C-alpha cells in the first residue's frame, strides 16, 4: 500500500453478481495469459494436464488445452467465454543451472538498471544523452575493476609476490616452475607475469563469449515493425516527452548495434588492463636499468596502451541507443579491429615482459594500490556527476511518486560500484589470506606483502556500513508492528457483519503492513547508497594519505588502533563470506530446481531491460518475450478478426504493456488489457519514471481500447496504477480486492480461506466478471472464415482435419 494513498473507508458489502454470463459480443475471443516472476507451467496456467504447444520453441512458447487447439474453426466454442492461451517464458531466465552463475555478473546488471532509471527528458535531449554517457562510463569502470582484481590475484599476489618468495612458494608445488628460488627459465619476474596473464585474459575471453552467444539469441529477435518505419524526431525546442511513449518506438527492443559496440569496447578495455599490468612492471624496471632500447620500447608500449584506452572511452561515449528506427546495421570494422588491436598489444606486452632480465628481482608488490584508488575515485566522481544531471532532469518534471526525487539512478549506480568492490576485494583478500598462511595479509608480517592497502580500508568500513543499515531496519520493523496494530480496526470494518476473530484479524493486518514495506524501499536504498559513497570516500582518503592498513594507520597502542584492526579483520571475513555465498548459491542452483527458480526471480526483475550500459550483463529476456507477444497478438487478430484480452500477472503485466505499445493502432483497438498483481506503477513507475511514469501510463490508457487493473492490499508487489478516468474511459483500477475472500467459516467456505497476497487472482470471482466486461467493450468480432472442405467432400470419413485446423497453423 502506497504511503501517498490515504487509507480507504470501509467499503459497502458487494452486491452479489452472477459468476458467468453469456457475452454481449459473441465471436472469436482469445485470452492470452502471461505469467509473472518465478516461472510457471502451461498445465498450471491452463488448469489442464493435457496441453499442446501451438507455436514457439523449448525456450518460450504459446500453449493451449488439447481440446482448444482448433477452436478457431469451431465458432460455438466462443459462446461461453474466450479461449485461454498461455505464454510461458520462464526458461528465458531460469531454464538451466548454468544461468545461476550469472549471479557473478550482478554488479553489471545493477549498473545496467541505473541507465533506465533516469527521469523523463521533456526536451532536454542533451542532458539525457549525458546521463547515458555517464552510466556507460560507470559500467566501463566495473569491467576494468573486475579485470584489475583478476590481475591482482594472478599477477601480483601469485606470480609476483608468492612465486618470488621462497617462504611462500616452497609449500606450493604447483608454483615450482615459477619460483624464483628454483632459478628456472620461467623464474624471472617478467616471464612469471606473462604466464599469469593467462588467467585474467581467459576471464575476459569468457565474458566476451557469453555476451556474444546471448547477443546472437536475444538481441537478434526482430520486432514486427518495418525497417523503414521510423518515429519522427521532435522539432527543436519541443518540450513534449515525444510523439509516442519510448517503449513504443520501433527499435526499442532491438539493440544489436549498441551491444556489439559496447562488447568490443569492454573486451578491449579488459585486454588492455591485462597488457598494462604485464608491461607496466617491465617498463618501470627498464627505466632504471642501463638498456636504452628496452626503456624506449617500454615507453612506446605504454603510450600505445594509453592511446588504446582513449579509443575505448571514445567508443563508449560516442553512440548510445538507436530507438526511433529498427537499426539493422553493425559496425563490423569497429567490432573486429578494436578488440583485435587490444589482443595484439597484449601479445607485444607479453613478449616484451618475457625479455631476459637476469638481474631483475620481484620485491614488495605491484603498484595495484594506485590502480584501485584511481578506479574508486573515478567511480565516485562519475556517480556525483550523474546525480547532478539526474536532478536537472527531475526538476523539469517533478513528481511525488518518483523514487528518491530522481536520484534512483545514481544511487543504484553507486550500489553497483559497491557490489563490484565487495566481490573483487573479497577474492583478493581470501587469496592473500590463503597464500600468507599464518600471517595477516596487508601487515607485512607474513611471507608476502598482501593485497593493496585500499582493499583493507574498504573491508574495514563494511562493519560500519552494516551498523548504519541496522538502524533503519529496526525502525521499519517497529513501524510495521505499529501499522499492523492500527490496521486491525480497518480489517474488521471491511468484513462488516462477521464475528471478529482477533487472531485472524491480526494475521491479515500483519500481512498488509508487511506488504507496505515495498514502498519504503527507496529510502533504504538511498540511505545505503549515500553511506556507501561517504564511507568509500573515507577509505580512499585514508589509504591515500596513510599508505598503511587501518590497524597500523593510527599508531601503536592507541585504542582506536585495536578497533580499526578488528573492523579490518571482520570486514575482510565478511567480504570473503559474501563472495563465497555467491559461489555456493550458484552451485546449489545448478543442482536444485527450487533454488534455480529463486534465482530466476532475481533475473525476472533485473533483466527486463535491454543491455544499454554493460554488454556483459545478463541478457534481456524482454527482447525475446515482447516480440513474441506482439507477433502473436498481431497475427491472431489479423487472421481471425477476433477480440483479444491479454491477461498479465505480476511481471507478465509489464511484458503485456510493453507488447501493446509495439502494436499498430489498428490492432491495438481489438485488444484489451487485464493486469493483476501488477508492479507497473508501484515499482516500475517509481523507479523508471521515463518509461512507466504517469505520462506513459496515461498514454497507454488512452491508446488501449479497454484496461482494467486488479490488486490486493496484501500484495507486496502489485498495486494500483493510479491512472484517472478520462472522457468516456472508466478508471483503470478496480477497488482493492478482499483478501481473504471470506473472513470466517461459512456454509460455502467451511474451512478458513487462505491469504493469497500476490498469487491466484483468478480464484476471485471478480476476475471472471472483469474479463467479460473487457471483452464486451471491444469492437464486435468479425465473422470467422468458413474452413474449406477437402476435395472428397463432406462424406469423406478418413479422419483428416480441415485445412488450417492444425495446432501449428494457429501460430
UniProtKB/TrEMBL annotation:
Keyword terms of this UniProt record: Membrane, Transmembrane, Transmembrane helix
Biased composition (Pro residues): 1-13
Transmembrane segments: 100-118, 130-150, 193-210, 264-283, 295-316, 337-355, 375-394, 406-428, 455-477, 524-546, 566-586
Region: Disordered, residue numbers: 1-28, 220-243, 778-811
UniProt entry tagged with the keyword Lipid metabolism: no
InterPro entries: AB_hydrolase_fold (IPR029058)
Biased composition regions of type Polar residues, renumbered to the chain: 800-811
Keyword Membrane among UniProt keywords: yes
Identification of the protein by name: Integral membrane protein
